[in-house]
Amino acid sequence: MSIPKEPRQLMINLMYLVLTALLALNVSASVMNAFFTLEKSMLTSNAIVTESNEKVLEAIQAEAEAYEGDTLKQIALEKATEAKVIADDFDAYIEGIYDEIFAAAGGEDPKKPGSHIPKDKKNKDITTRLLVDGQPKQGIEPLGPQIYAKIIETRDKLKGLVSAEKQEQLESAMPLGRNIENWQETATLDKAQKNTTWTTYKFRQMPVAAVIPMLRSFQADAKTSASAVMNEMFAESKGEIIKFDAFFPVASAKSSYVLQGEKYEADIFLSAFSTAASESTKIYVNGREIEMEEGKGIYSATGSKLGTNSYNVKIDVTNPLTQETESYEQKFEFEVGQPSIAVAADQMNVFYIGVDNPVTVSAAGINSNAINVSMTGDGGGSISKTGGSSYNVKVTKPTPLNKFAFVTVTGGPKPVKVPFRVKRIPDPVPALAPGVHEGNMGNGTFKAYQGVIAELKNFDFDARCNIQTFDLVRIASRQDPVTAQNKGARYNDKAQRLVNQAKPGDTYYFRNIKGKCPGDAAGRSLPSMVFTIR
Protein backbone atom coordinates (compact mmCIF):
# COMPACT_ATOMS: atom_id res chain seq x y z
CA MET A 1 0.00 0.00 0.00
CA SER A 2 1.41 3.38 -1.01
CA ILE A 3 1.78 6.08 1.62
CA PRO A 4 -0.52 9.02 0.87
CA LYS A 5 1.18 12.32 0.35
CA GLU A 6 -1.70 14.43 1.62
CA PRO A 7 -1.35 15.05 5.42
CA ARG A 8 -5.12 14.77 5.98
CA GLN A 9 -5.32 11.34 4.33
CA LEU A 10 -2.21 10.20 6.22
CA MET A 11 -3.87 11.15 9.52
CA ILE A 12 -7.07 9.26 8.62
CA ASN A 13 -5.06 6.12 7.81
CA LEU A 14 -3.23 6.31 11.15
CA MET A 15 -6.55 6.64 13.00
CA TYR A 16 -7.84 3.48 11.32
CA LEU A 17 -4.70 1.61 12.42
CA VAL A 18 -5.13 2.74 16.03
CA LEU A 19 -8.83 1.77 16.02
CA THR A 20 -8.01 -1.68 14.63
CA ALA A 21 -5.42 -2.21 17.40
CA LEU A 22 -7.90 -1.17 20.10
CA LEU A 23 -10.53 -3.54 18.75
CA ALA A 24 -8.00 -6.37 18.79
CA LEU A 25 -7.27 -5.71 22.47
CA ASN A 26 -10.92 -5.85 23.50
CA VAL A 27 -12.46 -9.16 24.43
CA SER A 28 -15.80 -9.87 22.78
CA ALA A 29 -19.05 -9.75 24.78
CA SER A 30 -19.71 -13.41 24.06
CA VAL A 31 -16.41 -14.38 25.67
CA MET A 32 -17.19 -12.23 28.71
CA ASN A 33 -20.59 -13.87 29.08
CA ALA A 34 -18.92 -17.29 28.83
CA PHE A 35 -16.79 -16.46 31.87
CA PHE A 36 -19.88 -15.77 33.99
CA THR A 37 -21.65 -18.86 32.64
CA LEU A 38 -18.60 -20.81 33.82
CA GLU A 39 -18.82 -19.13 37.24
CA LYS A 40 -22.48 -20.15 37.66
CA SER A 41 -21.60 -23.72 36.74
CA MET A 42 -18.81 -23.81 39.31
CA LEU A 43 -21.08 -22.39 42.01
CA THR A 44 -23.57 -25.18 41.31
CA SER A 45 -20.78 -27.77 41.51
CA ASN A 46 -19.53 -26.24 44.76
CA ALA A 47 -23.01 -26.55 46.28
CA ILE A 48 -23.20 -30.22 45.26
CA VAL A 49 -19.77 -31.01 46.76
CA THR A 50 -20.68 -29.12 49.95
CA GLU A 51 -23.86 -31.15 50.37
CA SER A 52 -21.96 -34.38 49.70
CA ASN A 53 -19.32 -33.48 52.30
CA GLU A 54 -22.00 -32.80 54.89
CA LYS A 55 -23.59 -36.20 54.29
CA VAL A 56 -20.23 -37.97 54.61
CA LEU A 57 -19.53 -36.09 57.84
CA GLU A 58 -22.98 -37.08 59.18
CA ALA A 59 -22.23 -40.73 58.39
CA ILE A 60 -18.89 -40.57 60.23
CA GLN A 61 -20.57 -38.88 63.18
CA ALA A 62 -23.25 -41.59 63.27
CA GLU A 63 -20.51 -44.24 63.43
CA ALA A 64 -18.71 -42.38 66.23
CA GLU A 65 -21.91 -41.95 68.26
CA ALA A 66 -22.83 -45.61 67.81
CA TYR A 67 -19.42 -46.64 69.23
CA GLU A 68 -18.56 -43.94 71.76
CA GLY A 69 -15.73 -46.03 73.20
CA ASP A 70 -14.03 -46.58 69.84
CA THR A 71 -11.01 -44.26 69.78
CA LEU A 72 -10.39 -44.75 66.04
CA LYS A 73 -13.91 -43.66 65.16
CA GLN A 74 -13.63 -40.59 67.38
CA ILE A 75 -10.32 -39.66 65.75
CA ALA A 76 -11.84 -40.14 62.28
CA LEU A 77 -14.72 -37.81 63.24
CA GLU A 78 -12.33 -35.17 64.61
CA LYS A 79 -10.17 -35.22 61.47
CA ALA A 80 -13.16 -35.18 59.11
CA THR A 81 -14.59 -32.22 61.02
CA GLU A 82 -11.22 -30.46 60.88
CA ALA A 83 -11.04 -31.06 57.10
CA LYS A 84 -14.41 -29.30 56.72
CA VAL A 85 -13.23 -26.40 58.92
CA ILE A 86 -10.04 -26.01 56.86
CA ALA A 87 -11.99 -26.00 53.58
CA ASP A 88 -14.59 -23.57 54.95
CA ASP A 89 -11.82 -21.24 56.14
CA PHE A 90 -10.21 -21.27 52.67
CA ASP A 91 -13.62 -20.75 51.04
CA ALA A 92 -14.30 -17.71 53.24
CA TYR A 93 -10.81 -16.32 52.51
CA ILE A 94 -11.30 -16.52 48.73
CA GLU A 95 -14.85 -15.15 49.08
CA GLY A 96 -13.39 -12.08 50.80
CA ILE A 97 -11.02 -11.49 47.86
CA TYR A 98 -13.91 -11.99 45.43
CA ASP A 99 -15.95 -9.35 47.30
CA GLU A 100 -13.03 -6.91 47.18
CA ILE A 101 -12.52 -7.33 43.43
CA PHE A 102 -16.29 -7.14 42.77
CA ALA A 103 -16.53 -3.89 44.74
CA ALA A 104 -13.47 -2.41 43.00
CA ALA A 105 -15.13 -3.22 39.66
CA GLY A 106 -18.06 -0.96 40.52
CA GLY A 107 -20.38 -3.53 42.05
CA GLU A 108 -23.23 -5.10 40.13
CA ASP A 109 -23.90 -3.76 36.64
CA PRO A 110 -27.00 -1.51 36.99
CA LYS A 111 -27.99 -2.47 33.46
CA LYS A 112 -28.21 -6.12 34.48
CA PRO A 113 -29.85 -6.20 37.94
CA GLY A 114 -29.74 -9.58 39.65
CA SER A 115 -27.07 -10.92 37.28
CA HIS A 116 -24.17 -10.67 39.80
CA ILE A 117 -22.02 -9.39 36.94
CA PRO A 118 -19.70 -6.48 37.86
CA LYS A 119 -20.09 -3.17 36.08
CA ASP A 120 -16.42 -2.91 35.02
CA LYS A 121 -16.03 -6.58 34.05
CA LYS A 122 -13.45 -5.91 31.28
CA ASN A 123 -11.09 -3.91 33.48
CA LYS A 124 -7.57 -5.37 33.66
CA ASP A 125 -5.97 -2.68 35.80
CA ILE A 126 -8.08 -3.61 38.86
CA THR A 127 -6.91 -7.22 38.94
CA THR A 128 -3.31 -6.27 38.19
CA ARG A 129 -3.27 -3.67 40.99
CA LEU A 130 -5.01 -5.79 43.64
CA LEU A 131 -3.47 -9.17 42.85
CA VAL A 132 -0.07 -8.53 41.22
CA ASP A 133 1.37 -5.08 41.97
CA GLY A 134 -0.32 -3.97 45.18
CA GLN A 135 0.09 -0.38 46.34
CA PRO A 136 3.64 -0.09 47.79
CA LYS A 137 3.31 3.59 48.63
CA GLN A 138 0.28 2.86 50.82
CA GLY A 139 1.92 -0.23 52.33
CA ILE A 140 -0.66 -2.56 50.73
CA GLU A 141 0.77 -5.88 49.61
CA PRO A 142 -0.59 -7.65 46.50
CA LEU A 143 -3.11 -10.42 47.19
CA GLY A 144 -1.81 -12.84 44.54
CA PRO A 145 1.20 -14.12 46.54
CA GLN A 146 -1.06 -14.44 49.58
CA ILE A 147 -3.47 -16.61 47.57
CA TYR A 148 -0.51 -18.73 46.45
CA ALA A 149 0.63 -19.19 50.07
CA LYS A 150 -2.93 -19.89 51.28
CA ILE A 151 -3.38 -22.63 48.66
CA ILE A 152 -0.16 -24.36 49.72
CA GLU A 153 -0.99 -23.95 53.43
CA THR A 154 -4.52 -25.37 52.97
CA ARG A 155 -3.29 -28.29 50.89
CA ASP A 156 -0.61 -29.15 53.47
CA LYS A 157 -3.10 -28.95 56.35
CA LEU A 158 -5.46 -31.35 54.57
CA LYS A 159 -2.62 -33.76 53.72
CA GLY A 160 -1.47 -33.67 57.34
CA LEU A 161 -4.79 -35.15 58.51
CA VAL A 162 -3.91 -38.59 57.11
CA SER A 163 -1.02 -40.89 57.95
CA ALA A 164 2.31 -40.40 56.15
CA GLU A 165 1.96 -43.63 54.16
CA LYS A 166 -1.40 -42.50 52.74
CA GLN A 167 -0.44 -38.93 51.86
CA GLU A 168 0.92 -39.74 48.41
CA GLN A 169 -2.26 -41.60 47.49
CA LEU A 170 -4.41 -38.81 48.90
CA GLU A 171 -2.49 -36.10 47.04
CA SER A 172 -3.46 -37.65 43.71
CA ALA A 173 -7.13 -37.15 44.67
CA MET A 174 -6.64 -33.54 45.83
CA PRO A 175 -6.94 -30.96 43.03
CA LEU A 176 -6.09 -28.01 45.28
CA GLY A 177 -2.55 -26.82 44.66
CA ARG A 178 -1.67 -29.70 42.38
CA ASN A 179 1.65 -28.86 40.68
CA ILE A 180 1.45 -25.31 42.01
CA GLU A 181 5.06 -25.29 43.19
CA ASN A 182 6.40 -26.39 39.78
CA TRP A 183 3.69 -24.71 37.72
CA GLN A 184 6.13 -23.57 35.01
CA GLU A 185 6.81 -27.18 34.06
CA THR A 186 3.13 -27.81 33.37
CA ALA A 187 2.19 -24.48 31.77
CA THR A 188 2.77 -23.62 28.13
CA LEU A 189 5.02 -20.55 28.29
CA ASP A 190 6.75 -18.48 25.68
CA LYS A 191 10.27 -17.14 26.20
CA ALA A 192 8.98 -13.84 27.53
CA GLN A 193 7.18 -15.65 30.34
CA LYS A 194 10.03 -17.96 31.25
CA ASN A 195 11.06 -16.17 34.46
CA THR A 196 7.65 -14.86 35.48
CA THR A 197 5.91 -15.70 38.78
CA TRP A 198 2.75 -17.74 39.36
CA THR A 199 0.92 -14.57 40.39
CA THR A 200 1.95 -12.67 37.27
CA TYR A 201 1.15 -15.62 35.01
CA LYS A 202 -2.30 -16.07 36.52
CA PHE A 203 -3.53 -12.52 37.04
CA ARG A 204 -1.52 -9.78 35.26
CA GLN A 205 -3.64 -7.98 32.70
CA MET A 206 -6.50 -10.46 33.15
CA PRO A 207 -9.98 -8.91 33.00
CA VAL A 208 -12.17 -9.06 36.07
CA ALA A 209 -14.52 -11.44 34.26
CA ALA A 210 -11.69 -13.97 33.79
CA VAL A 211 -10.38 -13.79 37.37
CA ILE A 212 -13.78 -14.46 39.00
CA PRO A 213 -14.12 -18.07 37.69
CA MET A 214 -10.47 -18.64 38.69
CA LEU A 215 -11.37 -17.79 42.30
CA ARG A 216 -14.40 -20.07 42.12
CA SER A 217 -12.17 -22.88 40.85
CA PHE A 218 -9.88 -22.47 43.88
CA GLN A 219 -12.92 -22.81 46.15
CA ALA A 220 -14.10 -25.89 44.27
CA ASP A 221 -10.63 -27.48 44.51
CA ALA A 222 -10.54 -26.92 48.29
CA LYS A 223 -13.95 -28.52 48.81
CA THR A 224 -13.06 -31.47 46.59
CA SER A 225 -9.75 -31.93 48.42
CA ALA A 226 -11.58 -31.89 51.77
CA SER A 227 -13.97 -34.46 50.32
CA ALA A 228 -11.00 -36.77 49.61
CA VAL A 229 -9.92 -36.50 53.26
CA MET A 230 -13.46 -37.10 54.53
CA ASN A 231 -13.87 -40.19 52.36
CA GLU A 232 -10.60 -41.53 53.75
CA MET A 233 -11.81 -40.89 57.30
CA PHE A 234 -15.13 -42.59 56.51
CA ALA A 235 -13.26 -45.68 55.29
CA GLU A 236 -11.22 -45.71 58.50
CA SER A 237 -14.31 -45.29 60.71
CA LYS A 238 -16.03 -48.37 59.29
CA GLY A 239 -15.29 -51.44 61.40
CA GLU A 240 -16.79 -54.60 62.79
CA ILE A 241 -20.48 -54.57 63.63
CA ILE A 242 -19.77 -56.02 67.07
CA LYS A 243 -16.90 -54.47 69.03
CA PHE A 244 -15.83 -55.15 72.61
CA ASP A 245 -13.20 -52.61 73.48
CA ALA A 246 -14.47 -50.47 76.39
CA PHE A 247 -15.90 -52.72 79.09
CA PHE A 248 -16.72 -51.37 82.53
CA PRO A 249 -19.26 -52.58 85.10
CA VAL A 250 -21.98 -50.04 85.93
CA ALA A 251 -24.46 -50.07 88.81
CA SER A 252 -27.59 -47.98 88.26
CA ALA A 253 -29.37 -47.84 91.61
CA LYS A 254 -32.78 -46.41 92.35
CA SER A 255 -31.10 -44.84 95.38
CA SER A 256 -27.58 -45.16 96.77
CA TYR A 257 -28.89 -44.13 100.19
CA VAL A 258 -31.56 -46.22 101.88
CA LEU A 259 -33.24 -46.24 105.26
CA GLN A 260 -32.66 -48.88 107.86
CA GLY A 261 -34.94 -51.86 107.15
CA GLU A 262 -35.53 -50.90 103.49
CA LYS A 263 -34.12 -52.76 100.46
CA TYR A 264 -31.31 -51.54 98.25
CA GLU A 265 -31.90 -52.34 94.57
CA ALA A 266 -29.63 -51.70 91.60
CA ASP A 267 -29.40 -52.54 87.89
CA ILE A 268 -25.93 -53.98 87.12
CA PHE A 269 -24.95 -53.97 83.47
CA LEU A 270 -22.02 -53.70 81.11
CA SER A 271 -21.60 -50.29 79.50
CA ALA A 272 -21.84 -50.21 75.68
CA PHE A 273 -23.48 -53.61 75.92
CA SER A 274 -24.40 -55.36 72.64
CA THR A 275 -27.40 -57.63 72.45
CA ALA A 276 -25.30 -60.02 70.36
CA ALA A 277 -23.21 -60.65 73.50
CA SER A 278 -26.08 -61.48 75.87
CA GLU A 279 -25.44 -65.23 75.86
CA SER A 280 -21.70 -64.68 76.31
CA THR A 281 -21.94 -62.49 79.43
CA LYS A 282 -22.21 -63.67 83.06
CA ILE A 283 -22.60 -61.41 86.12
CA TYR A 284 -21.59 -62.38 89.66
CA VAL A 285 -22.32 -60.43 92.88
CA ASN A 286 -20.21 -61.47 95.90
CA GLY A 287 -19.38 -64.70 94.05
CA ARG A 288 -23.02 -65.65 93.28
CA GLU A 289 -24.24 -65.61 89.68
CA ILE A 290 -27.38 -63.58 89.13
CA GLU A 291 -29.91 -63.84 86.35
CA MET A 292 -29.70 -61.51 83.37
CA GLU A 293 -32.40 -59.95 81.28
CA GLU A 294 -31.73 -57.71 78.25
CA GLY A 295 -28.09 -57.30 79.23
CA LYS A 296 -28.57 -56.42 82.89
CA GLY A 297 -28.82 -58.25 86.20
CA ILE A 298 -31.02 -57.28 89.13
CA TYR A 299 -29.41 -57.27 92.58
CA SER A 300 -31.26 -56.47 95.80
CA ALA A 301 -30.23 -56.42 99.47
CA THR A 302 -31.85 -55.29 102.74
CA GLY A 303 -30.32 -52.18 104.30
CA SER A 304 -30.10 -53.50 107.84
CA LYS A 305 -26.73 -51.98 108.85
CA LEU A 306 -26.41 -48.22 109.24
CA GLY A 307 -23.48 -46.63 107.39
CA THR A 308 -21.57 -47.84 104.34
CA ASN A 309 -22.46 -51.18 102.76
CA SER A 310 -20.52 -52.66 99.81
CA TYR A 311 -20.74 -55.51 97.29
CA ASN A 312 -18.35 -56.86 94.66
CA VAL A 313 -19.34 -57.29 91.02
CA LYS A 314 -17.58 -59.54 88.52
CA ILE A 315 -18.57 -59.74 84.84
CA ASP A 316 -17.22 -62.44 82.50
CA VAL A 317 -17.49 -61.64 78.79
CA THR A 318 -16.75 -63.96 75.88
CA ASN A 319 -16.04 -62.02 72.72
CA PRO A 320 -18.08 -63.72 69.97
CA LEU A 321 -15.54 -62.62 67.36
CA THR A 322 -12.40 -63.99 69.09
CA GLN A 323 -13.96 -66.47 71.55
CA GLU A 324 -11.69 -65.03 74.23
CA THR A 325 -13.13 -64.54 77.74
CA GLU A 326 -12.16 -61.58 79.89
CA SER A 327 -13.23 -60.68 83.42
CA TYR A 328 -14.02 -57.22 84.80
CA GLU A 329 -14.41 -56.50 88.52
CA GLN A 330 -15.61 -53.50 90.47
CA LYS A 331 -16.61 -52.72 94.05
CA PHE A 332 -19.79 -50.69 94.69
CA GLU A 333 -21.03 -48.98 97.85
CA PHE A 334 -24.31 -47.64 99.20
CA GLU A 335 -25.25 -45.78 102.37
CA VAL A 336 -27.88 -46.79 104.90
CA GLY A 337 -29.14 -43.94 107.06
CA GLN A 338 -32.08 -42.34 108.82
CA PRO A 339 -34.58 -39.74 107.48
CA SER A 340 -33.11 -36.27 106.75
CA ILE A 341 -33.12 -33.40 104.23
CA ALA A 342 -30.02 -31.81 102.72
CA VAL A 343 -29.49 -29.20 99.98
CA ALA A 344 -26.14 -28.86 98.21
CA ALA A 345 -24.99 -26.99 95.12
CA ASP A 346 -23.19 -29.39 92.83
CA GLN A 347 -20.40 -26.87 92.13
CA MET A 348 -20.07 -24.48 95.13
CA ASN A 349 -22.13 -22.26 97.45
CA VAL A 350 -22.52 -19.60 94.75
CA PHE A 351 -25.08 -19.27 91.96
CA TYR A 352 -23.96 -17.59 88.72
CA ILE A 353 -26.10 -15.48 86.40
CA GLY A 354 -26.57 -16.75 82.86
CA VAL A 355 -25.76 -20.44 83.47
CA ASP A 356 -27.51 -23.51 84.85
CA ASN A 357 -26.69 -24.04 88.53
CA PRO A 358 -27.25 -27.73 89.43
CA VAL A 359 -28.50 -28.44 92.94
CA THR A 360 -29.04 -31.75 94.72
CA VAL A 361 -31.84 -32.04 97.29
CA SER A 362 -31.55 -35.17 99.42
CA ALA A 363 -34.71 -36.20 101.31
CA ALA A 364 -34.02 -39.57 102.86
CA GLY A 365 -36.98 -41.32 104.47
CA ILE A 366 -39.50 -38.83 103.07
CA ASN A 367 -41.94 -39.42 100.22
CA SER A 368 -40.65 -37.45 97.24
CA ASN A 369 -44.21 -36.39 96.36
CA ALA A 370 -44.44 -34.58 99.69
CA ILE A 371 -41.29 -32.52 99.10
CA ASN A 372 -41.67 -28.92 97.84
CA VAL A 373 -38.55 -27.00 96.69
CA SER A 374 -38.68 -23.25 95.99
CA MET A 375 -36.49 -20.14 95.67
CA THR A 376 -36.80 -17.14 97.99
CA GLY A 377 -34.72 -14.09 98.89
CA ASP A 378 -32.65 -11.95 96.52
CA GLY A 379 -31.16 -12.89 93.16
CA GLY A 380 -34.37 -13.17 91.11
CA GLY A 381 -34.02 -16.94 91.16
CA SER A 382 -36.18 -19.84 89.99
CA ILE A 383 -35.71 -23.57 90.52
CA SER A 384 -36.94 -26.55 88.49
CA LYS A 385 -36.64 -30.28 88.92
CA THR A 386 -34.53 -32.13 86.36
CA GLY A 387 -34.99 -35.66 87.70
CA GLY A 388 -34.73 -37.62 90.93
CA SER A 389 -33.05 -35.43 93.55
CA SER A 390 -31.53 -33.10 90.93
CA TYR A 391 -32.70 -29.51 90.44
CA ASN A 392 -31.58 -26.57 88.36
CA VAL A 393 -31.42 -22.97 89.58
CA LYS A 394 -31.42 -19.88 87.36
CA VAL A 395 -30.72 -16.40 88.74
CA THR A 396 -30.87 -12.95 87.15
CA LYS A 397 -29.16 -10.42 89.43
CA PRO A 398 -26.28 -10.34 91.96
CA THR A 399 -27.10 -10.37 95.65
CA PRO A 400 -26.09 -7.28 97.67
CA LEU A 401 -23.61 -7.53 100.52
CA ASN A 402 -24.96 -9.69 103.37
CA LYS A 403 -27.99 -10.60 101.24
CA PHE A 404 -28.70 -14.08 99.91
CA ALA A 405 -30.85 -16.22 97.65
CA PHE A 406 -32.41 -19.17 99.48
CA VAL A 407 -33.36 -22.69 98.41
CA THR A 408 -36.26 -23.60 100.66
CA VAL A 409 -37.43 -27.20 101.16
CA THR A 410 -40.72 -28.00 102.90
CA GLY A 411 -42.57 -31.25 103.51
CA GLY A 412 -40.05 -32.82 105.90
CA PRO A 413 -39.89 -32.84 109.66
CA LYS A 414 -39.16 -29.10 109.50
CA PRO A 415 -38.47 -26.56 106.72
CA VAL A 416 -34.89 -26.31 105.45
CA LYS A 417 -33.60 -22.95 104.16
CA VAL A 418 -30.12 -22.87 102.61
CA PRO A 419 -28.46 -19.51 101.66
CA PHE A 420 -26.47 -18.90 98.46
CA ARG A 421 -24.71 -15.85 97.05
CA VAL A 422 -25.41 -14.75 93.45
CA LYS A 423 -22.62 -13.42 91.22
CA ARG A 424 -21.94 -12.53 87.60
CA ILE A 425 -19.70 -14.82 85.58
CA PRO A 426 -16.08 -13.67 86.16
CA ASP A 427 -14.47 -11.49 83.49
CA PRO A 428 -12.94 -13.57 80.69
CA VAL A 429 -9.39 -12.99 79.46
CA PRO A 430 -8.86 -12.12 75.76
CA ALA A 431 -6.47 -14.43 73.91
CA LEU A 432 -5.51 -15.55 70.41
CA ALA A 433 -5.77 -19.13 71.65
CA PRO A 434 -6.02 -20.68 75.14
CA GLY A 435 -3.08 -19.32 77.14
CA VAL A 436 -1.86 -16.96 74.35
CA HIS A 437 -2.37 -13.48 75.81
CA GLU A 438 0.76 -11.41 75.00
CA GLY A 439 4.51 -11.55 74.36
CA ASN A 440 6.95 -12.21 71.53
CA MET A 441 5.82 -14.41 68.67
CA GLY A 442 7.09 -15.58 65.27
CA ASN A 443 5.26 -14.06 62.33
CA GLY A 444 4.23 -17.48 61.02
CA THR A 445 2.66 -18.40 64.35
CA PHE A 446 0.97 -15.00 64.62
CA LYS A 447 -0.56 -15.32 61.15
CA ALA A 448 -1.94 -18.77 61.95
CA TYR A 449 -4.45 -17.44 64.49
CA GLN A 450 -7.88 -16.49 63.15
CA GLY A 451 -9.06 -13.92 65.69
CA VAL A 452 -9.62 -13.24 69.40
CA ILE A 453 -11.33 -15.54 71.90
CA ALA A 454 -12.69 -14.85 75.40
CA GLU A 455 -11.09 -17.38 77.76
CA LEU A 456 -12.79 -18.18 81.04
CA LYS A 457 -10.16 -19.34 83.52
CA ASN A 458 -10.82 -21.43 86.63
CA PHE A 459 -14.58 -21.39 86.08
CA ASP A 460 -16.30 -24.69 86.80
CA PHE A 461 -19.54 -24.07 84.93
CA ASP A 462 -20.34 -24.75 81.31
CA ALA A 463 -20.34 -21.21 79.92
CA ARG A 464 -18.90 -19.43 76.92
CA CYS A 465 -18.21 -15.73 76.53
CA ASN A 466 -18.02 -14.10 73.10
CA ILE A 467 -15.91 -11.26 71.72
CA GLN A 468 -18.06 -8.42 70.38
CA THR A 469 -15.54 -5.88 69.05
CA PHE A 470 -11.87 -4.96 69.16
CA ASP A 471 -9.36 -2.65 67.45
CA LEU A 472 -6.22 -4.13 65.90
CA VAL A 473 -3.28 -1.71 65.56
CA ARG A 474 -0.14 -2.55 63.58
CA ILE A 475 3.00 -0.47 64.25
CA ALA A 476 5.70 -1.25 61.73
CA SER A 477 9.22 0.17 61.81
CA ARG A 478 9.32 3.77 60.53
CA GLN A 479 5.65 3.67 59.58
CA ASP A 480 2.55 5.27 61.00
CA PRO A 481 0.25 3.00 63.00
CA VAL A 482 -2.53 1.35 60.98
CA THR A 483 -5.78 0.50 62.77
CA ALA A 484 -8.51 -1.97 61.80
CA GLN A 485 -11.80 -1.96 63.66
CA ASN A 486 -13.23 -5.47 63.97
CA LYS A 487 -16.73 -6.67 64.85
CA GLY A 488 -16.95 -10.18 66.25
CA ALA A 489 -14.21 -12.57 67.27
CA ARG A 490 -12.94 -13.55 63.81
CA TYR A 491 -10.72 -11.19 61.82
CA ASN A 492 -12.54 -9.21 59.14
CA ASP A 493 -10.85 -8.58 55.79
CA LYS A 494 -9.01 -5.41 56.88
CA ALA A 495 -7.77 -6.93 60.12
CA GLN A 496 -6.68 -10.12 58.30
CA ARG A 497 -4.64 -8.06 55.86
CA LEU A 498 -2.87 -6.32 58.75
CA VAL A 499 -2.09 -9.72 60.27
CA ASN A 500 -0.83 -11.08 56.95
CA GLN A 501 1.63 -8.14 56.75
CA ALA A 502 3.35 -9.13 60.01
CA LYS A 503 7.14 -8.88 59.86
CA PRO A 504 9.89 -9.18 62.48
CA GLY A 505 10.03 -6.00 64.55
CA ASP A 506 6.33 -5.16 64.14
CA THR A 507 4.15 -4.58 67.19
CA TYR A 508 0.44 -5.44 67.26
CA TYR A 509 -1.98 -3.98 69.81
CA PHE A 510 -5.42 -5.43 70.49
CA ARG A 511 -7.34 -2.75 72.36
CA ASN A 512 -10.88 -1.57 73.07
CA ILE A 513 -11.83 -5.23 73.43
CA LYS A 514 -15.46 -5.86 74.32
CA GLY A 515 -16.81 -9.24 75.43
CA LYS A 516 -20.22 -10.50 76.45
CA CYS A 517 -20.94 -13.43 78.77
CA PRO A 518 -24.23 -15.28 79.38
CA GLY A 519 -26.55 -13.17 81.48
CA ASP A 520 -24.88 -9.85 80.55
CA ALA A 521 -27.15 -6.99 79.48
CA ALA A 522 -24.22 -5.28 77.71
CA GLY A 523 -20.64 -6.04 76.76
CA ARG A 524 -17.72 -5.77 79.19
CA SER A 525 -14.41 -4.01 78.62
CA LEU A 526 -11.58 -6.54 78.60
CA PRO A 527 -7.81 -6.01 78.99
CA SER A 528 -5.67 -5.13 75.96
CA MET A 529 -3.10 -7.47 74.39
CA VAL A 530 0.33 -6.64 72.92
CA PHE A 531 2.39 -8.92 70.67
CA THR A 532 5.86 -8.24 69.25
CA ILE A 533 6.78 -10.09 66.06
CA ARG A 534 10.24 -11.64 66.03
Per DSSP E runs of 2 or more residues, the count of β-strands stands at 25
Fraction of helical residues: 25-40%
Strand content: 25-35%
Structural class: alpha+beta
Task: Give the count of helical stretches.
Answer: 11
Largest sheet entry: 6 strands, mixed
Number of structurally distinct domains: 4
* Spans of at least 5 consecutive residues with low confidence: 16-25, 239-246
- End-to-end separation in angstroms reads 68 Å
Radius of gyration: 34 Å
Shape: extended
Mean pLDDT: 80
Describe this structure in words.
It is a single chain. The chain contains eleven helices and 25 strands. It is α+β, with helices and mostly antiparallel strands. The chain folds into four domains: 26-237; 249-337, Immunoglobulin-like; 340-423, Immunoglobulin-like; 429-533, no CATH class. The strands form six sheets. Strands 19, 21, 22, 23, 24 and 25 form a six-stranded mixed sheet that branches. A hairpin with a 2-residue loop joins strand 4 (281-285) and strand 5 (288-290). The protein is extended, with a radius of gyration of 34 Å. It starts with 6 loop residues before the first helix and ends with a strand.
